[in-house]
Amino acid sequence: MNQLARNLACEWASNGIRANAVAPALIETPLAEAAFDDEFKKEMISREPVGRLERPEEVASLVAFLCMPAASYITGQTICVDGGFTVNDFSYQPQV
Fold first, then answer.
1. Eight-state DSSP code of residue 82
2. Angle at 13 between CA 9 and CA 15, to 5 degrees
3. Where are the domains positioned within the chain?
4. Which of 10, 77, 78, 90 has the smallest count of CB within 10 Å of its CB?
5. Averaged pLDDT for residues 11-34
6. How do residues 28-86 score in pLDDT, each as one tens digit?
7. What is the DSSP letter of 91?
8. What pLDDT does 2 receive?
9. Is residue 50 within 8 Å of 88, Cβ to Cβ?
10. What angle is formed at CA 40 by the lines to CA 44 and CA 61, rounded to 5 degrees?
């Protein structure tokens, strides 16, 4: 996704089209609640400096900003909305 956002930004910029990607971590939704067990969620939370799962509106607010004229010079970027998760590690390794 990172490279796709960059390539599309370069290809479409002359047409006034911006291309960005948003990279969330585990979002607290009913689907996530049903799909992941408590151990996995606890592990995810322990890796996030913010110390909790993110809420849908936190991702939506970034997407809304990227659609505004105020973000007109932002293109080709992948923006992580993950409470600092990517600062630590991407992998999940359950404790045995």
1. S
2. 135
3. 26-75
4. 90
5. 94
6. 999 988 998 889 888 888 888 888 999 999 999 999 999 999 999 999 999 999 998 88
7. -
8. 92
9. no
10. 45
DSSP code string of 36-74: S-HHHHHHHHHH-TT-SPBPHHHHHHHHHHHHSGGGTT-
Q: Which residue has the tokens 């936190």?
A: 58
Q: Are 22 and 79 in contact, with CB atoms under 8 Å apart?
A: yes
Cβ neighbours around 56 below 10 Å, total: 11
Sequence-distant (≥ 6) Cβ neighbours of residue 17 within 8 angstroms? 8
Tokens of 6: 């960059």
Rounded to whole angstroms, the Cα distance separating 64 from 72 reads 12
Instruction: Indicate if the pLDDT at residue 96 is higher than 90.
Output: no
Give the H or E element holding residue 78.
Answer: strand 78-81
| Burial tier of 87 (Cβ tally within 10 Å: 0-12, 13-18, 19+) | exposed
Q: Which residues pair with 24 in a beta bridge?
A: 81
Angle at the Cα of 10 from the Cα atoms of 5 and 56, rounded to 5 degrees: 25
